[in-house]
Specification:
- With 289 residues, this protein is of the alpha/beta class.
- It has nine helices and eight strands.
- An eight-stranded parallel β-barrel has the order 1-2-3-4-5-6-7-8, surrounded by five helices.
- Helix 4 links the parallel strand 4 and strand 5.
- Helix 8 packs parallel to helix 9.
- The longest helix is centred in the C-terminal third of the chain and has 15 residues.
- The radius of gyration is 19 Å and the shape is globular.
- The two termini are 26 Å apart.
Length: 289
């Protein structure tokens, strides 16, 4: 399957669309049937969302690529593994033809979880990026030769809900470590993206030329959000405006600013269920924008 950066740079003239999917809390493949309705340029499999036990993101990504023939990336949280475990998973994913991965730290466990599940915070996402780049050169984390090089395209995340100066610093570190692309948490106005890129250039002295996939979440009344929801969105939802319509407005705002790559997060209901039908409808709308 192609690398995300290859698909991103194809001169199709159309927006580039990645769609987020949540791995099920089961090994039953029947639960994936609804996903065949989705026609994005790439799927993205989350890693144990909500810190709950779900099917392995790498295994789900492999299933998705084999059964939908759509390129799929998977997320991998360094919180749950050391360097040896992470590189073993990556080699196995490579064996199944997966080429795209996003390095994340993962949300910290609460104190009440400490007796049952301890997090490993000795492997920052930035170090995971360097580790993957090392594998692409043919070496494991100890510097020992692998039998062959990997060909992995590694991405990382940006969260503009946090302190902007701190996030610019983290983004620069990830960029220097070799991140091939970035995915942002959901945003609701293009001016946030423009401000970030302008301040990044002002702070670092250089433009951020690495591809950025801008997060757009379809909201629903009472739904779960990955980012702070603006008052105008909440008010529109309370007046029975469709979440798809709001998301399309945000996307058009981004496109008017020249930003044409989107990471679509389907509506998330209490309990974690996702409305992939709404995501499929939005993806089709984006294609004709």
């Amino acid at each position: 399957m192609p690398l995300l950066t290859e698909l991103y740079r194809q001169p199709s003239g159309k927006p580039f669309v990645v769609c987020d999917i949540s791995p099920p809390k089961t090994g039953d493949a029947d639960l994936f049937k609804d996903l065949t309705l989705l026609k994005p340029d790439m799927f993205a499999v989350a890693y144990n969302p909500g810190k709950g036990v779900s099917a392995s993101s790498a295994f789900v990504a492999a299933w998705m690529e084999m059964n939908t023939l759509t390129p799929t990336l998977f997320m991998l949280a360094t919180r749950d593994m050391n360097r040896m475990a992470a590189q073993s998973i990556l080699l196995g994913a490579h064996l199944f033809g997966l080429r795209n991965v996003v390095s994340v730290m993962g949300d910290k466990f609460l104190r009440k979880d400490a007796n049952e599940c301890l997090g490993n915070y000795n492997l920052p996402a930035t170090e995971m990026i360097r580790s993957i780049k090392q594998m692409n050169q043919g070496y494991d984390f100890r510097g020992r030769s692998l039998l062959s090089r990997t060909n992995l395209c590694v991405g990382s995340t940006i969260d503009l809900s946090r302190d902007l100066d701190r996030e610019i610093n983290l983004t620069q570190k990830k960029n220097l470590a070799g991140s091939d692309f970035f995915i942002t948490q959901p945003l609701y106005k293009a001016s946030q993206a423009v401000e970030f890129m302008e301040k990044y250039e002002e702070t670092t002295g250089g433009k951020l030329t690495t591809p950025i996939i801008w997060g757009i979440q379809i909201m629903t009344p009472g739904g779960i959000s990955f980012a702070e929801v603006p008052d105008w969105v909440s008010k529109d939802l309370s007046r029975s405006r469709e979440g798809i319509d709001i998301a399309l407005q945000v996307i058009r705002d981004f496109m008017s600013s020249g930003l044409r790559a989107f990471y679509i997060v389907p509506p998330i209901h209490i309990g974690g269920a996702r409305d992939y039908g709404s995501a499929a409808a939005l993806v089709e709308m984006i294609k004709v924008c």
